[in-house]
Amino acid sequence: MAVSKKLIISASALVIIAFVLWIFGSRSVAINVAKQDCRQVEIGENEFCLWVADSFEERKQGLSNTYLGDFQSSREADGMIFLFDEPTVQNFWMKEMLFDLDVLWIADSQVIKIDTGIKAPDFAGEEPERMSSDPYAVSWVIELPSGSVNHFNIEAGDKALFSE
Q: What is the pLDDT of residue 120?
């Protein structure tokens, strides 16, 4: 009798833990910028709707903890644009990213550098990849889901126009 009672308690505990993990694991973490309207940005021949990160807190948060599936299915935005007051060398990292990215570095309304297929960490605690606009000073950085650069034929030299 004692063994079956322990077995029932253990099984019940596992079911509860699995349920809690399922509930919290299937939810995306909301980001404040996602509540904003997206802004239209033309890159070459393509038009994208991008969430804007123009404050320190929004740039710090970026797309971290956003699930790609929720991001794509929401149809709210195609990516994110980070705006800076002064052109400077910018350094980014993939901390707490849940999907891979393509990154466009923009100066003087032109794509000057492209990083593609930047890997999100595979597990918590893994050192995130880092990227930089170096040696270029940039005023905008655009993050798109990995594969976007190839899919939309974006190239260095393409014009990038932001609707104010």
A: 84
